[in-house]
Amino acid sequence: MSQPIRTISLMLPFHMTRVNCYLVEAGEGHVLIDTGSSNRRAELRRELDGAGCKPGSLKLIVLTHGDFDHSGNAAYLRREFGAKIGMQRDDAGMIERGDMFFNRKKPNALIRALLPLVFGLGESDRFEPDVYLEDGDDLSPYGFAAGVLRLPGHSKGSIGVLTAEGDLFCGDLLGNTDEPELNSVMDDLTAANASVARLKGLGIGTVYPGHGEAFLMEAFLGNKQV
After folding, report:
1. How far is CA 19 from CA 34, 36, 59, in A?
2. Contact 115, 106 (CB under 8 A)
3. Do residues 36 and 19 touch, judged by C-beta distance below 8 A?
4. CA triplet 129, 74, 120: central angle to 5 degrees?
């Protein structure tokens, strides 16, 4: 039986764009996929309260990768809700150090110096994960009929979550701000293309991206040569 999915769309700093968090009903509780950035913390809390997600009922926070716009409220939610945080080990240094360039190709010195002032994680928002998620991990112990997929490309530790019904939460591998497409920001384009190719045989129906509207996988595959 399908588990209800609530999309929570939050604005990023400077009104750059919006980022999606997904709240899934999981048994008698909830699982949250990604958390948005800290500038919209009060709005996220209102959305969770409105969905009936209360302290004690949030079983797991899954981070599809370590970027600030996906992980910025994770430490706060763990403190307030008692939830465990799960992510892939290769991105853990981002949220432990607040460094979005950890385990990625390094930009020039000026960009590396300036971007953390705006797009890093402050001391209070840094944390160590409770669970390291790997390819094939089963999330049913948290009441969520879904499994973990390694989908590197945007970052080395990027993961997706594929439900038993064929819905995919893909993080920033794919997006749909104008049309379904490969995310334009990639650390490793070869790895990203390999991740997309892997998805072809998995019977995926609806894709829930980190940015933009949900879309049918066939709409993406119909427009792209993968």
Report:
1. 9, 6, 22
2. no
3. yes
4. 95
User: Would you list the domain boundaries of the chain?
Assistant: 5-163
User: Model confidence over 2-56: pLDDT tens digits?
Assistant: 789 999 999 998 777 899 999 999 989 999 999 999 999 999 999 999 999 999 9
What's the rounded Cα separation, in Å, for the pair 195 and 9?
25
Kindly state which CATH superfamily the domain 5-163 is placed in.
Ribonuclease Z/Hydroxyacylglutathione hydrolase-like (3.60.15.10)
In 3-state terms, what secondary structure has residue 129? coil
Confidence of residue 113 (pLDDT cuts 50, 70, 90): low
Own/partner contacts of 53-57, CB < 8 Å, gap of 24 or more, are: 53/23, 53/29, 53/81, 54/81, 55/80, 55/81, 55/82, 56/81, 56/82, 57/28, 57/29, 57/30, 57/81
Give the separation between CA 157 and CA 208, rounded to whole angstroms.
18
Strand partners, 212: 176
Query: d(Cα 103, Cα 26) in Å, to the nearest integer?
Result: 32
Summarize pLDDT for 193-211 with one digit per residue, the tens. Answer: 999 999 998 999 999 999 9
Name the token pair of 113.
């110096």
